[in-house]
Design brief:
Oligomer: single chain
Largest sheet: 7 strands, antiparallel
Strand order of the largest sheet: 2-1-5-6-7-4-3
Strand content: 35-45%
Structural class: alpha+beta
Order of helices and strands: EEEEHEEHHEH
Number of strands: 7
Shape: elongated
Amino acid sequence: MPARFAFNGEDGFPRVVPMAFHWNAADIVMCTTTNSLKYPALRKFPKVALTIDTEGFPPRVLLIRGTASTELVDGIPQEYVDASHKIAPPAGHAEWEAGVRSLYPQMVRITIRPEWARLQDFQTTLPQNVEKLIRAAQTQQGSHS
């Protein structure tokens, strides 16, 4: 599943794009092309947010906020290959990877250090505003008993 990656463009307007990601036990790593608008924007506005969620009901959503750093790297970062393999069907991986390696002499590695995270599974954890509404409704029902 891709992450939904939110950042501010150089024009100051927010953007949200789906992106494959790799978790290395400390950081979230994503990669993009050297001509991507994300590259200069993240150098200017490094604060970002991500959501990683499941399909189906009830939703399970991991919300993350952090600071992104960018690094221009020669070739294709292994994190890009690993992340792409998680979201693409296995058939054709070798052909896809060969095509990517021939197309991109360099890529940009985006490393996001999480600074805040929250899991909402809509069974044991809810958005705080929904929790407040439920408590208020329970209090109001209790006062009518």
